[in-house]
């Protein structure tokens, strides 16, 4: 089964393709199919993910999968949340993962409460107006480091220290990180939902 991924993020595509491998699905980046990016006007992950999935399905005629993810920092009352990708731009930096990390560490300088969570919400639709979208949420809690550590992963992976492993996500082997990240946890749930609600129905 081909599924269009409502993202142009190469790291996200590679991570999700590995996670969805057991289903025999092929994820295709929306940019490869000429799909324009969807507006993301909402303040919750699930609403933005649904908008992106519907947009990708509308332009391709394929089932679509969208991920809306972000960093929720206790000290900031859960922000930056859905605005994570643009976090650096609030402080005069160009948009980008490396600048997001720089801006975050600057804003967290001297802050004792370093609790934060990476959050991922996956939404899948069979068609643009699918009345029964599949929704899966994953959360990985950790502590923000004082500086980036590790070279694997992307986004805020180098500054999120996970107590369970005693390392940041960017220090973990890719397969361990994928299985335990916020996106990995959401993907496990989504794979099961697709297996029981999409593939089972299709096999009848």
UniProtKB/TrEMBL annotation:
EC top class named in words: hydrolase
Entry binding sites for substrate: 7-12, 69, 154-157, 177, 182-183
Record-listed E.C. numbers: 3.6.1.66
Active site, UniProt feature: 68
Entry similarity comment: Belongs to the HAM1 NTPase family.
Biological role: Pyrophosphatase that catalyzes the hydrolysis of nucleoside triphosphates to their monophosphate derivatives, with a high preference for the non-canonical purine nucleotides XTP (xanthosine triphosphate), dITP (deoxyinosine triphosphate) and ITP. Seems to function as a house-cleaning enzyme that removes non-canonical purine nucleotides from the nucleotide pool, thus preventing their incorporation into DNA/RNA and avoiding chromosomal lesions.
Quaternary structure annotation from Swiss-Prot or TrEMBL: Homodimer.
Protein name in the entry: dITP/XTP pyrophosphatase
């Amino acid at each position: 089964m081909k599924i269009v991924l409502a993202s142009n993020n190469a790291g996200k595509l590679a991570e999700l393709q590995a996670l969805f491998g057991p289903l025999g699905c092929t994820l295709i980046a929306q940019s490869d199919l000429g799909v324009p990016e969807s507006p993301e006007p909402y303040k919750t992950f699930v609403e933005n993910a649904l908008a992106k999935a519907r947009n990708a399905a509308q332009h391709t005629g394929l089932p679509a999968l969208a991920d809306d993810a972000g960093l929720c920092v206790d000290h900031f009352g859960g922000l930056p949340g859905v605005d994570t990708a643009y976090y650096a731009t609030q402080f005069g930096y160009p948009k980008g993962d490396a600048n997001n990390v720089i801006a975050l560490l600057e804003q967290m300088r001297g802050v004792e409460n370093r609790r934060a969570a990476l959050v991922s919400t996956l939404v899948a639709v069979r068609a643009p107006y699918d009345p029964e979208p599949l929704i899966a949420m994953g959360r990985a809690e950790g502590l923000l480091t004082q500086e980036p550590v590790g070279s694997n992963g992307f986004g805020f992976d180098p500054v999120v220290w996970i107590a369970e492993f005693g390392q940041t996500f960017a220090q973990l082997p890719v397969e361990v990180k994928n299985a335990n990240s916020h996106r990995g946890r959401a993907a496990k749930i989504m794979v099961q939902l697709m297996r029981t609600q999409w593939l089972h129905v299709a096999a009848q």
